[in-house]
């Protein structure tokens, strides 16, 4: 490996955020490098809940079926009482898909499997993360970023147009950018461990001592493996023994009688919970995505999902600017994603408080389907005009029919790196241009079935949000919008 090979985009960190960004850039044919200081991929299960909106993003990236095969729905929670009895509750909503929302329940997939599937997809585009390569320093001269890396092949310098810090909660990139990370330490520590055990059946997520923060613990069976993920609060201070013997003693202290035998520990960690949000997501040519930009407690399963969606928001913008779009487009990344993370911080800490009281219910608020970018400078519609679709909202799926009579899913038409322009009963709205697929919808169009008014134009962004809702008479505004996001 040539340590010093230059590139357009250097991604620092091959976790969920960095890998997602890499897959998106790879399918767009953008030149990038993806480095990680680890010698080999991360092996833990920690972020195991994939929310419906992320499943839609993963469908777009071509991996949702592989993820579904690698995972499963959440099992019921089995709440064990001190007297040896138990009650099963399904506190995570498992809802049937609808046409508009093909994924309505979170999937349980250990993070090591999600990341492996992302790497597999990346390999299909001819790329792989460069492990054992650490970003040690960088400087942004306004034209380029010069990054100093230390790797197997020695030290090297990578010159790139943009650097993306996807390097996790303790982000080196964020520190080096001197970006503040205000928030609070929640004065709570927890253990998370992937263990092989005897004594529990795999049909339920077992919870013991609910509502007692000193003794609470949960064992979640990880699909298609012999592992359980153990999660339990820890005293805020003091050493923790994460060996099999240490975890056995920890479990025995909370569940006397030796009902659970810990046979093996594959991965374990003790972590302090924080809720923090970076003051800025961008300084010059350097960006932050994922945990580097926001950290919150694991309650509600939001961290990995928010990280993946940061990457999906930034990927197409970086690619567009490299292809000639105005650089101001990149400012919309922070404008759109930082408020989402701020909301997430409140949600996850609120759920943590409920969990402390033994209430683990989570509903639609964690699915991320209702999040969007109304009010963003990229959301263009005419104030006061009423439409079924609103600029900034997630575009729902729809069942359409081709002019030849075949069924078509709207999401199949949206999938890929392009923009999609849907024009009600008329058109074309704009002259054909690279990167925009235009469909006429209506009796004389190529597709039927979407509830669009005659002359209504719906522009859907590459990340699946409605960018503009205009009419055919407003072609000029549509052309102007496209010039702002694509150049030309
Ligand atoms: C117990 C637990 C449960 C969780 N449950 C959920 C859940 O159910 N759902 C959910 O959405 N999220 C969950 N999360 C959160 C989720 O794991 C994180 O949000 C997610 O891993 C963030 O991904 P990331 O890519 O931003 O960062 P990371 O996964 O932390 O990846 C950062 C990468 O950067 C690399 N790196 C760091 N510094 C450098 C450097 N200088 N040079 C090169 N590489 C570097 C690291 O080696 C690492 O591989 C959970 C977390 C925990 C701890």
TrEMBL record:
UniProt cross-references to Pfam families, sorted A to Z: FAD_binding_3, Rng_hyd_C
Positions of the FAD-binding domain: 6-345
Keywords tagged on the record: FAD, Flavoprotein
Cofactor annotation: FAD
InterPro entries xrefs: FAD-bd, FAD/NAD-bd_sf, RIFMO-like, Thioredoxin-like_sf
Gene Ontology MF annotations: FAD binding; oxidoreductase activity, acting on paired donors, with incorporation or reduction of molecular oxygen, NAD(P)H as one donor, and incorporation of one atom of oxygen
Family: Belongs to the PheA/TfdB FAD monooxygenase family.
Stated name of the protein: FAD-dependent oxidoreductase
Organism expressing this protein natively: Gluconacetobacter takamatsuzukensis
């Amino acid at each position: 490996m040539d340590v010093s090979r230059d590139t357009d985009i250097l991604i620092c960190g091959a976790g969920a955020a960095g890998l997602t960004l890499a897959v998106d850039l790879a399918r767009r044919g953008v030149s990038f490098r993806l480095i990680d200081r680890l010698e080999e991929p991360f092996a833990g299960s920690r972020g195991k809940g994939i929310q419906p909106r992320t499943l839609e993003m993963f469908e777009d990236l071509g991996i949702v079926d592989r993820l579904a095969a690698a995972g499963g729905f959440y099992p019921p929670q089995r709440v064990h009482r001190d007297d040896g009895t138990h009650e099963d509750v399904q506190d995570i909503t498992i809802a049937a898909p609808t046409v508009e929302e093909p994924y309505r329940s979170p999937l349980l997939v250990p993070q090591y499997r999600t990341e492996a599937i992302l790497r597999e997809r990346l390999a299909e585009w001819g790329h792989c993360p460069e492990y054992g390569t650490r970003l040690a320093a960088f400087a942004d001269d306004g034209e380029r970023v010069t990054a100093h890396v230390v790797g197997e092949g020695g030290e090297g310098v990578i010159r790139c147009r943009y650097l993306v810090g996807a390097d996790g909660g303790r982000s080196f990139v964020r520190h080096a950018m001197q970006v503040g990370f205000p928030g609070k330490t929640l004065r709570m520590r927890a253990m998370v461990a992937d263990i092989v055990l005897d004594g529990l059946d795999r049909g339920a997520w077992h919870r013991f001592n609910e509502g007692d923060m000193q003794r609470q613990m949960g064992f979640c069976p990880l699909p298609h493996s012999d592992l359980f993920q153990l999660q339990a609060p820890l005293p805020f201070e003091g050493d923790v023994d994460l060996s099999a013997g240490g975890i056995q003693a920890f479990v025995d202290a909370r569940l006397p009688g030796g009902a659970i035998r810990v046979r093996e520990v594959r991965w374990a960690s003790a972590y302090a919970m924080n809720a923090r949000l970076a003051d800025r997501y961008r300084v010059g040519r350097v960006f932050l995505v994922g945990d580097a930009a926001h950290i919150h407690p694991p309650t509600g399963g939001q961290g990995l999902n928010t990280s993946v969606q940061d990457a999906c928001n930034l990927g197409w913008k970086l690619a567009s600017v490299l292809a000639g779009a105005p650089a101001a487009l990149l400012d919309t990344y922070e404008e759109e994603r930082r408020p989402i993370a701020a909301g997430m911080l409140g949600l996850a800490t609120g759920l943590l408080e409920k969990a402390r009281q033994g209430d683990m219910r989570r509903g639609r608020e964690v699915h991320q389907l209702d999040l969007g970018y109304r009010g963003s400078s990229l959301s263009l519609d005419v104030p006061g005009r009423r439409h079924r679709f609103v600029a900034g909202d997630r575009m729902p799926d729809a069942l359409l029919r081709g002019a030849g009579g075949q069924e078509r899913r709207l999401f199949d038409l949206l999938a890929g790196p392009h923009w999609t322009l849907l024009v009600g009963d008329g058109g074309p709205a704009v002259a054909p241009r690279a990167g925009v697929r235009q469909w006429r919808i209506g009796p004389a169009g190529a597709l039927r079935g979407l509830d669009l008014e005659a002359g209504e134009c719906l522009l859907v962004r590459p990340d699946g949000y409605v960018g503009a809702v205009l009419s055919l008479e407003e072609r000029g505004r549509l052309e102007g919008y496209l010039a702002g996001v694509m150049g030309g």
